[in-house]
Amino acid sequence: MEYQTILNYIAEAVRPSFGKGKVADYIPALAEVSPQKFGMTLQLVSGERFSIGDHNEPFSIQSISKLFVLQLVMSHLGEMVWTRVGKEPSGDRFNSLMKLEHEAGIPRNPFINAGAIATLDLLMSLKGNARHRIRNYLRYLSMDDSIDVNKTVMQSEIDHAHINRAMANLMKAHGNLNGDVEEIIETYCYQCALEMTCEDLAIAGLPLASAGYSSLHGDAILSKSQIKRINAVMLTCGMYDSVGSFAYRVGLPAKSGVGGGILAIVPGVMSIAVWAPELDAFGNSYVGTTALEMFTSMTHSSVF
């Protein structure tokens, strides 16, 4: 497969899609990112890598961080995470409180904000510095020791985390949050403000494409059973309340973030990272989704 040729074609073909989305502005620091950015990296399980565009420019991973925190919690606490969060799509906006109130403080899944906060609470129950644990895990997975937090973005998120605080307090009232609310929210803002490149993300996603094993690390990162479950939840819950549309158009397990990044997995073949900051109405990268749809159509790599 001529992957570089395909990426070159996609980079040109998505150009008419620019301007149809909107950069996230409810976090002021994200509103300053150029909407014209576009990068894409393919990391094959064979070790080959192909990239195009702004693939080496760091960007705020935002909700993609939820995927890696879930991995950390599952590696340390196993199935316990599912006593705190569900595995079902929410059907609501990622920061909605409606179902959380009706369902006694148990979030629908670990990829909406409430579910990510509950998952983080579990991680923070372990000994050690949770922020360093998350950052160092990403550095290890991506093989990039320069990964760090954007302090401006983090502070911007802390200053505007009113709904997240409301969700955390609601879960606390229902007994589904054990730690200090403000400490959890600040750590949550920290994980979202970590910056990675498309290349970093694609390398970090490699174990999800190869049954937990990374050919670049020469080691098993997670078990086959854990990978099966994480990919399943990504497919059904990873793209906010447009998972059905994304599955229809792209057909891959994926996790998005409002920084414009998407990490998608072709099981047994590759991980794919794409970045384009303009978002659709659901908070997913507009151009990134279009690029992934083109890619799976051209390569016949959908799981369906």
Describe this structure in words.
With 304 residues, the chain is of the alpha+beta class. Helix content is 44%, strand content 13%. The chain is built from 13 helices and twelve strands. The chain has helices at residues 3-13, 65-77, 98-102, 113-124, 130-142, 151-159, 162-173, 181-192, 198-204, 206-209, 224-237, 243-249, 286-299; strands at residues 22-23, 39-44, 49-53, 59-60, 148-149, 194-196, 213-214, 219-220, 254-256, 261-266, 270-275, 278-279. Strands 3-2-11-10-9 form a five-stranded antiparallel sheet. A three-stranded antiparallel sheet has the order 4-6-5. Strands 1-12 form a two-stranded antiparallel ribbon. It is globular, with a radius of gyration of 18 Å. The model has no long low-confidence stretch (mean pLDDT 95).
Short key terms for the protein model shown above:
304 residues, 3-stranded antiparallel sheet, 12 strands, 44% helix, globular
Determine Rg (CA atoms, Å).
18 Å
Structural class, by secondary structure, is: alpha+beta
Contiguous uncertain segments of 5+ residues: none
Number of distinct helices: 13
Biggest beta-sheet profile: 5 strands, antiparallel
Shape: globular
End-to-end Cα distance, whole Å, is: 19 Å
The pLDDT mean sits at: 95
* Helix content bin: 40-55%
SS elements, strand count: 12
Q: Can you list the strand order of the major beta sheet?
A: 3-2-11-10-9
- SS strand fraction: 5-15%
- Helix-strand topology string: HEEEEHHHHEHHHEHHEEHHEEEEH
What is the topological layout?
Layout: H1 3-13, E1 22-23, E2 39-44, E3 49-53, E4 59-60, H2 65-77, H3 98-102, H4 113-124, H5 130-142, E5 148-149, H6 151-159, H7 162-173, H8 181-192, E6 194-196, H9 198-204, H10 206-209, E7 213-214, E8 219-220, H11 224-237, H12 243-249, E9 254-256, E10 261-266, E11 270-275, E12 278-279, H13 286-299
Antiparallel strand pairs: 1-12, 2-3, 2-11, 4-6, 5-6, 7-8, 9-10, 10-11
Helix pairs in contact: 1-13, 2-4, 4-7, 4-8, 5-9, 6-8, 7-8
